[in-house]
Design brief:
This protein is α+β, with helices and mostly antiparallel strands and 90 residues long. It has a single domain, classed as START domain (Alpha-D-Glucose-1,6-Bisphosphate, Chain A, domain 4, 2-Layer Sandwich), CATH 3.30.530. The protein is 27% helix and 39% strand. It contains 2 helices and 5 strands. The protein has a 5-stranded antiparallel beta sheet, with helices on one face. β3 and β4 form a beta hairpin. The longest helix is centred in the first third of the chain and has 15 residues. The protein is globular, with a radius of gyration of 13 Å. The mean pLDDT is 92.
Length: 90
């Protein structure tokens, strides 16, 4: 399943939070970094299952996309912890 959101955080901060969240906040479903780049992070968890995250700057924030087969609820929960984008008043 794929989940998406937009946040005010830059990509590097999104990935730093993801590493902590998936290692510490969900110990029975922990996942750890396997590969990463400027705009992606691949985490590997129990049974070799993966969580793929991408984060790219967009106008007013960062678009974050997370895909997984096993960790649906956990990925969705992580994305809800990210602050919303800054609101631009008209």
């Amino acid at each position: 399943m794929v989940f998406e959101t937009t946040t005010s955080l830059p990509p590097a901060d999104v990935f730093a939070r993801a590493k902590r969240f998936f290692a510490e906040r969900v110990p029975h479903n922990a996942a750890f970094p396997e590969r990463e780049g400027e705009h992606f992070l691949l985490l590997r968890g129990q049974g070799g299952e993966e969580i793929a995250l991408s984060a790219r700057p967009v106008g007013g924030g960062t678009h974050v996309r997370g895909g997984t087969l096993l960790f649906d609820q956990v990925v969705d929960r992580f994305l809800t912890t990210l602050p919303p984008p800054h609101r631009e008043d008209a």
